[in-house]
Amino acid sequence: MSTRRDFLKLSLGAAAAALPGLHASGALAAPAPRVLRIGNQKGALSLLKGRGSLEQRLAPLGVSVTWTEFNAGPVQLEALNVGSIDFGDVGDAPPIFAQAAGAPLAYVAATLPRPRSEAVIVPGNSPLRDVADLKGKRVAFNRASNVHFFLVQLLRKHGLDYGDIRPVFLSPPDARAAFENGSIDAWVIWDPFYAAAQATLGARLLADATAVDGNRGFYFSSQNYARQNPDVLRIVVDEIAKTDEWGKTHRAEYAAELAKLWGLPAPIVQQAIDRTEFGTVTITKPILGEQQKIADTFHDLGLVPTRVDVLQAAAPGLV
After folding, report:
1. What is the CATH number of the domain that holds 55?
2. pLDDT of amino acid 318
3. Which of 36, 79, 168, 263 could form a disulfide with 140 if both were Cys (CB 3.0 to 4.6 A apart)?
4. Structural domain of 234
5. pTM of the model
6. Bridge partners, 121 (sequence order)
7. DSSP calls for 214-275
């Protein structure tokens, strides 16, 4: 009789162990707490953080939120690669290099195209009047960045090759100094550096990215987190979209908040915001196709050692 009782206990224990959340006593265990670790730059995600609405919406799901601020997209993607964050925001170029390096990247959402937010600028008294005039000139830009791709596409559109210019690889602060002292002929840059150069250096627009490059921003996660937490990511994207919609109809207030974050004069930020297209969209195959063009261009330029298949970084469930 005792043998039968012992066998029954063992059988019940094995069954309980096979059921998630069920103790041997038969009681349901509390679900493990979930967390969303966000890595943000000083931008839209920072505004969302200040509102606290994301935490309120995720609380009923038992999800807590942590925030870590980064100064650049590549650093965020490295944090994703080593498992330190679950979500972040970035421009269009850094994900290409992160995927090439083996990061478990998953594209989750994107901004609308923002072509007027990046441009080729020249000094106000420059003799350059057209993109074709860049031939043989010293053009500064951030290597392997969004404007690197934009410049290549712009040159092609105007009948020039990348080899027709004299590239000068400079970070935005160094490029601004070179622009100011006249050691470069043109500067390819994005907002708010672009707006600041117009306001304080008298920079003149030669061409922006309209009809050349979409210049989207992206929101990313890891493949594992996206697979295991689609409900969390849907809420995050929805809250970002709400912040975007507010910014679209409250541009002055949006600019004022960013001016505080960036430490820039409000009129400069306002100029940048006035040419910003607001809107958040889910990832589609055509959007990843835009990224594929960037990846292929960088591979052709020798910036990416191997060909990147951007579709492999689609979040699980992309149709």
Report:
1. 3.40.190.10
2. 74
3. 168
4. 34-113+216-262+279-313
5. 0.86
6. 187, 205
7. ----EEEEEHHHHHH-HHHHHHHHHHHHHHHHHHHH-HHHHHHHHHHHHT--HHHHHHHHHT
* Listed residue (124, 251, 109, 135) closest to 180, CA to CA: 124
Rounded Cα–Cα distance for residues 177 and 241 (Å): 36
Helix (H, G, I), strand (E, B) or coil at 148: helix
Distance from C-alpha of 235 to C-alpha of 65, rounded to nearest angstrom: 12
Domain co-membership, 109 together with 123: no
What per-residue confidence (pLDDT) applies to 8? Answer: 39
User: Using CA atoms, how far apart are residues 245 and 95, in angstroms rounded to an integer?
Assistant: 25
Decide: 220 and 77 in contact? Cβ < 8 Å. Answer: yes
Cα pseudo-dihedral 161, 165, 170, 175, rounded to 10: -120
Tokens of 11: 């059988």
Could you tell me the pLDDT band of residue 6, with boundaries at 50, 70 and 90? very low
Strand order in the sheet with 166-169: 166-169, 138-141, 186-190, 118-122, 204-208
239 shares its domain with 109: yes
Q: Which amino acid is located at 303 in the chain?
A: L
Model pLDDT for residues 222-246, shown as the tens digit of each residue: 999 999 999 999 999 999 999 999 9
CA 7 – CA 79 distance, rounded (Å): 50
Cβ neighbours of residue 64 closer than 8 Å, sequence gap 6 or more: 33, 34, 35, 36, 55, 58
Q: Which residue has the tokens 């650049």?
A: 72
